[in-house]
What we know:
By secondary structure, the chain is of the alpha+beta class. It has helices at residues 4-37, 41-47, 55-79, 84-104, 112-123, 127-143, 146-152, 158-162, 167-271, 276-302, 307-311, 314-328, 346-365, 401-412; strands at 332-337, 371-378, 382-389, 416-420, 425-432.
Amino acid sequence: MQGKKFIQFKILMIAINLIAVLFVTIFIYITTQKICNNFIAREFINRVDALPWKPDRNIIISICLFGILIFSFIIREFIYPNNSKVVYLSLLIDFVISIIIVCILNFNYNGILFLVIANIITYTKGNKGRYLLMAISIMSILIADYEMISINFRLYSINDYISFYDSMTQQYLLGFFNTVISINILIFIIYCIYVIQNQRGTIDEVNHLYEQLRKANEDLQKANEQLKEYSKITEKMGETRERNRLAREIHDTLGHTLTGISAGIDACLTMVDKSPEDTKKQLEVISRVTREGINEIRRSVNKLRPDALERLSLESAIHKMIIEIESMTHTHIYFESDVKNLKFASDEEDAIYRVIQESLTNAIRHGKASQIWVHIKGGQGEIILTVKDDGIGCKDMKMGFGTRHIIERIKMLNGTVEFDGTDGFTVTAKIPIRWGEEYD
């Protein structure tokens, strides 16, 4: 719905046009009656080019058409203001009715077409459509001018009827009629100015909002850059903490074990000639301490394993990871394995799990992928792991931390890895597997 001032302007224009139309039709009807009553019809007919057909009917028809015009205004403004089809249909009805009214008035008044133009300015959107309709309406005003039409057609003129009265009355009638016409044009001009100012205010508001959006976007980019820097710092801090933890574990566990072994062996060297039995007992102690040290080292290394692999099988851990990623993103991940039992040595499972994890992360973060396919296929003494996505790919690939991490893990198992960024991005890793072997 338009603003109250828009509606007030339109109601005022409707009222002015109604006054003008009623003035022309009623004035001609009353004047015709006076001419007939004064028995000067023949003299009047000889002086004019044409006469209106049934002036009384013209009054009734004009009032009915104006009623339809008002009804169309009510539907457009109050009942279906947001229905574009109804709005454009009502504008078409207004234009047709206005043309009919102008024809009934024999083109003595065409100011009602300004009301049509005002509605076009208000409701039409898009430069082409608006300018086309306005051009048609303006051409209608120019063509529907009495002076132009009367050159080729015989029309009755309101001026002929005004000339029936004395000079003083003529001045009053012409003054009133011209004042109504001028007021209608003045209201139309003020309305157009108000529409332009309102649209300019809207444009200024849009520009202001755009400026705010631009600043917000700049702030967001700065925050994103800061977040990236923070992420890098956090990653380095995590690496440093992990290195320090490993250093402490090695110092405390391996250092203690090796120190004990060294001291025990020195003792054995001292006792071996004097007391072989005591040396044997000492070697048994050294063997027990060595096994305990190995177990401690294994415990420390096992802490590097993903938590999911500590609690679940490799296949279950992969499924859990996929479910978690899909729940946090809009990416669909399809997992398929030709290997019936995904059970390998710890370091092999760690490598497979981490390669899949890093590949999924890169596909989502860098490749903007919406679908990812993970496939594990068994071969002779090896498995082939393939992770393919439908992302943007990467023809000129630069090795980052994640890809280097993948390469290092696979190389530790004497495997190979290939990257292909021509169609999406594909990671293909061939990993030798110690099938069936068990380790203490």
